[in-house]
Probable allantoicase (Williamsia limnetica), 332 residues
Amino acid sequence: MPDLALRTLGGAVIWTNDDLFAEAQNLIKTPSAEYQPATFGHKGQVYDGWETRRRREDGVDQAIIRLGVPGIIYGVVVDTSWFVGNYPPYVSVEAAAVQGIPTTNQLIEETEWTTIVDRTEVNGDTLNPFRVDSMERFTHVRLSIYPDGGVARFRVHGRGTPDPQFLSYGHFDLAALENGGMITACSNMFYGSPNNLLMPGRARTMGEGWETSRRRDSGNDWVQIKLAGESTVGLAELDTSYFLGNAPGSAMIRGRDGENGEWFELLPRTALQPDTRHRFLVDVDRPLTEARMDIFPDGGMARLRLYGQLTDDARAKIVDRWHHGERAQPPA
């Protein structure tokens, strides 16, 4: 599932009590942490992560992260890669749902936090995953380390839950992560995650898209997306920007209403050009909850946009999810 805290999704570390050795903003970088031995700066060995000073009194170090996409959290990963003699022996995670854009003082002094991961032992130089069972929608998370130390990355996996008031003004991207879209399956993600297709903004490099390995058979690659809700699609955008010698030769898009519904055609198989933003009108009035894009035979794509409108029933469900939360079955 997508990492809702990523900087590229709009996430930010908005407060920490200490990051003397390595700044807390590193926690939400997209790439995995890197390490170069014997690389010293003024404050010591340079780490690609968050590292606090050694405590000489009782206490705890903390960092508060504003999620780039508020949503329902299914699990977190406390990644201590490269921290061997300086990782925290215990961690805990809390979360909160706050309306609007709160100040740091409001988050520290006035906000009610819910524990989603109890204080738990972790290992150094390890991806430490934790399941989260809450059904609530959250906007912020707080990572606590006991008593001090370093964490390379902090991942917050879940499904975006958009504010319904922002979905009431005409067409919007029904597949976007920030609007509740979610990848549920794909044939291949050798070079790049399919979640990149649904990220906000334009890709800046080939590495910010979805790319499959080269096929040596007669098949083709595909990706399947759960949309924000039941909706009708009026415009599809397939962007092959930065994919020059590895763009798909063609693509098609189908949709279905419900997991057991019959697939129907939204966009017939259409030739694509490399390094090009393609836009196609969709003249299909049938509602759908899921979409599938097939590319032929393989290759890479930067972004996939499906613009349309929610049905009245879907809008009502999103309003209910906003107020009461929901825990849908995560993809396998």
The chain has a mean pLDDT of 93. The chain is about 5% helix and 40% strand.
